[in-house]
Design brief:
Elements (H helix, E strand, L loop, with lengths): L27 H8 E2 L5 E4 L4 E2 L7 E4 L2 H9 L3 H9 L3 E4 L7 H7 L3 E2 L4 H11 L29 H12 L3 H8 L17 H16 L6 E5 L5 H10 L2 E6 L2 H13 L6 E5 L10 E7 L2 H4 L4 H10 L1 E14 L10 H7 L8 H10 L3 E7 L1 H17 L1 H8 L1 H19 L3 E9 L18
Parallel strand pairs: 2-4, 7-8, 7-10, 8-9, 10-11
Antiparallel strand pairs: 1-6, 2-3, 4-5, 11-13, 12-13
Helix pairs in contact: 2-3, 7-16, 8-9, 12-14, 15-17, 16-17
Amino acid sequence: MSLTDRSQGAAGAPATPPPGGRRSGPTVADIVRALTAGPLPVRVRGYDGSAIGPADAGITLSIRSERGLSYLLTAPGDLGMARAYVSGDLDLEGVHPGDPYEALQVLKDVRVRPPALTEGLALARGLGWERLVPPPAPPQEALPRWKRILGGLRHSRSRDSSAILHHYDVSNAFYEKVLGPSMTYTCAVFRSPDDTLEQAQATKYDLVAGKLALRPGMRLLDVGCGWGGMVRHAAREYGVKALGVTLSRAQAQWAQAAIEREGLSELAEVRHLDYRDAPREQFDVVSSIGLTEHVGVRNYPSYFGFLRDRLRPEGRLLNHCITRADNRAPHRSGAFIDRYVFPDGELAGPGRVIGEIHDAGLEVHHEENLRQHYALTLAAWCRNLVRHWDFCVSEVGTATARVWGLYMAGSRLAFERNGIQLHQVLATRNGPDAVSGYPLRPDWLP
């Protein structure tokens, strides 16, 4: 379609011209029409007054500035959209910024197409080449991977510390509102979709405790312990002496204060440590709930070897982590997640995770996929963000709050569509003569 033919929008839908008649160069509606195929499921409105897509669409994408358009054009895909949205140059009208799930559901059906060469050149000349120079990224964006080498090699101690600081040391008060009283930033387990988030998080901790067969007097090491949810639950509910380690100083400070507030100091402790610096002694059980995503796939052998060495013979390991849906998918995350959420985060398929646990000298006894539970968990976190939006914005700023809404709603959609999964894997370090201490049937089941 010629860029000068402005009478029709995508799939014949009328494109609204800008106020005051035709302008020189393509309008925002022209550009959208040139770069999409098929009918648009949303309305797109430009800062120039042009619009395209169904007038009665429930969702409207409002491109509010030339900078927003440049973000979209110079970084196609989720990164460009994230930059425009986070900076406030793109609005998703019809949804709350704390939970843009419904907008993302619709946007997944937008079909983007590269223009033909002649059409693309005409588009570029009409826009002006300066429009195709990337604007500076929002300050919430981490450096691209190739620039992070200045902070150390990927998954070195210094670079891992910077990545954790980027995501977790945002604001404990912000996390209290989003995560709720349990301060648990991992997948909950729902007996019913009607369960509250707090009920589901307690069920998750009880499930982990059951799989590890926790009993009074046992010693637990929880690596990547976050705000100490598992540590406190194990000490309070099972009389276990629990040590948690986290690379986030803010998490460790909050967790230790919570331990003291709950009167658990004789049983529970959280230290600000890299998991690789955890005490070199053997524990009865080890839990890793949400850490595997941060260690790097190439480091799985040393990671699971480290966890094996922290277990006494017949001790149990519970590894709980997000995975790809299969073993062929790339390990590295997409641009938005890598730049705005989890720098250097990597995911493997469930087969790779289980294989690496076996190869580290542990024996896997049970595996469980909690994919649907994580979708429910993320929906609950989004509801919390919406409910406390004004407070969260006052605490971390509108841009960071928008990052979280976009990230959690998008992740919910990915879990629902089986793009990613959540697997719990239970294994033992066997003693002499392959004695595992594991019963003939799972001892946490009725």
